[in-house]
Design brief:
- The protein has about 725 residues and is of the alpha+beta class.
- The protein contains 21 helices and 19 strands.
- Strands 2, 6, 7, 8, 9, 12, 13, 14, 15 and 17 form a ten-stranded mixed beta sheet that branches. Strands 3-4-5 form a three-stranded antiparallel beta sheet, with helices on one face.
- Helix 2 crosses helix 4, helix 9 packs antiparallel against helix 11 and helix 10 runs antiparallel to helix 11.
- The radius of gyration is 41 Å and the shape is flat.
- It starts with 7 loop residues before the first strand and ends with a helix.
- The chain binds adenosine-5'-diphosphate (ADP) and magnesium ion (MG).
- Adenosine-5'-diphosphate (ADP) binds next to helix 3.
- The site of adenosine-5'-diphosphate has 13 residues, from helix 3.
Amino acid sequence: MSKTKSSESVKVVVRCRPLNRKEESNGPAGGIVQMDLRLGQVILRNPRAPPSEPQKTFTFDAVYDANSKQRDLYDESVRPLIDSVLAGFNGTIFAYGQTGTGKTYTMQGAWLDPEKRGVIPNAFDHIFTHISRSQSDKQYLVRASYLEIYREEVRDLLDPNHANARALELRESPDTGVYVRDLTSCVCKSIKEIEEVMNMGNQARAVGATDMNEHSSRSHALFLITVECSQPGPDGRKHIRVGRLNLVDLAGSERQAKTGVQGERLKEAAKINLSLSALGNVISALADGRSGHVPYRDSKLTRLLQDSLGGNAKTVMVATLGPASQHYDETLTTLRYANRAKNIQNQPRVNEDPKDALLREFQKEIARLRAQLNHRKWRSKQKKEQVDGEGWDDDTAGEEEEEVEKEAEEYVKQEEQRLEMEKEAIRGDRFLLAEEKQRLLGEKERMMGDLRKEQEATEHLTAKYKAMESKLLVGGKNIMDHTNEQQKMLELKRQEIAEQTRKEREMQQQMLVQDEETLELRETFTSLQQEVEAKTKKLKKLYAKLQCIKAEIQDVNDEHVRSRQELEQTQNELTRELKFKYLIIENFIPPEEKNKIMNRLTFDPEEDQWKFQPLVPTESKSSQMKKRPASAVGYKRPISQYARVAIAMGPHSRYRAENIMFLELDMTPLNTASLDRSTEAEPNQSPSQDNSPTKDRGVRKSRSWCQTQKSITSSSSNASLVACHTSTPTAAQ
Ligand code: ADP
Ligand code: MG
């Protein structure tokens, strides 16, 4: 399955949006973020610090300032990733940053303005243009799914019943990694279709947003595109490559605790932020490289992105910033996050011939339908030739399919005409009896009916076949190619330029690092004075660097303490809640009920949570719960065996043996006592009774009563019950 296995790091790019009107009016002029596009550096100024404090500098794969165009970001940073997906790699792009810094703008943008279209619409264009321009021996199948994670629940945005739908479960398979069970996936044949899918999902999201204030900035949205491509390999067999693309618009990264929420809202916020803090922990663990355990299982988001972070995928992270000074802390956190993510190493590989490729199933189904259809048509053609009096010859095997189809149609027409004529002839035949005529006409009618049915079945099959086939996109066919050569060239040039810029930047960054290292070696000093000056300068530089790093350490420590305090606060809240629940359980729930509930609990490692076992096992549910117990004769309601016996025995059955009347009634004439004991022991006599020391008549009679009762308890037949029941009132009297 794996073809090329190499390691590559997560690409991290940073984008800063322009100041908005509100920020321009209330903040001091200018932002706190400066960018060096050539070097890919972000320089952050602390608005609260004295001017002497050095500014913080971060280096990334690329940076985009307020004037950057959507197209530039796409061509430079996203296009290579989509190309990889089309070649069969897994790819992920995610936007991370504070609310209102342009995550959605970057991912989606303004759809109607070609200049402002974001990563997602550009990726749609890219994928379908690529397909239309690829060679004709390639077949493609494109599928799309859309989901959101809200309050740690995965919801399908393409489910028509989205609002009431159940949360979906995550599953893991060795082939595809982590996936969402029962997620809707739509086969898309064109840009228009995939855009419709996106719109449908966005509408479902918007509906949710009206229910819950600021829903969109608290939910993570994932748009998934699967591109399957089949191409004949050197061995003559068709090989399938599957590329999966995740386009992720994360929830706002700002701290919910900052907003001062408490109680229920705090818990909700903790849950919403859980995914993001888990993402942070995963990134830290991966970037650190030393800790063996990566906590992917801590949240739904990290499980879904498991492959994208440190696994089989190529990943681009777009960190978005706002330039306003009031958000300095958040901006710094985002930059630190992004800086850490740079160190994550992925192992992308081409997914070749996976077992679950849908394209293969489609191809098989199409081949099956085609064979069926051909068989039908050949049969019609064969019949026609028999009718025409032509012999069946093997030459026809090489005939064109179209011809076969035409002949088959002709056959149907001819056959219809023939039957019609025969019917006419029968009607016109004066020598036939009326009954005979009727019978023959009926027969012809039936034959015509059969013919029509056959034809309908063929049409149905053809329609199914065509629908199936149209879902597969064949390379070389112009799905949308309204682009002319000139435009193609232009695109190509733009890509080249983007590639050039990227390489240039990489080189610049490398040079900068090397410069610092070799500066010392290259320097030659003519005088001692000069050497002292140079060394002093260097010392100053290094000292400044040291200060920077010290400040950084201090910052990181502060940040750590702060997030720890927040976690402690949340933990305290939750502990209090837990104690309260325990109190209720201890004081208000009987221990046996508690045990019953505890016994039904099982841990589901897939879902990573405790679950209740159903009260009735699901498989035997149908047989067990099917019938309502039948009413006992004479009773309105169903009644248990125990209750029936209790009724039969009457009140206080314990004292029944002392009822003299009962003893009298039960008296039976005896044979001689000796005969009774020696020859035939009573068959249902219990050993304890046998060993009883007293064996006089009275006791034996009472025993006989016991036996009668015994037969009642052991038998469930209605007859004995009714008998006992009727005897009870007499006994009670
Ligand atoms: P987020 O999804 O991060 O919460 P949005 O994408 O909704 O933020 O952006 C907030 C606002 O900022 C929107 O009105 C958007 O048009 C604007 N905006 C964001 N980034 C840019 C940009 N690079 N250029 C121009 N406007 C932007
Ligand atoms: Mg958004």
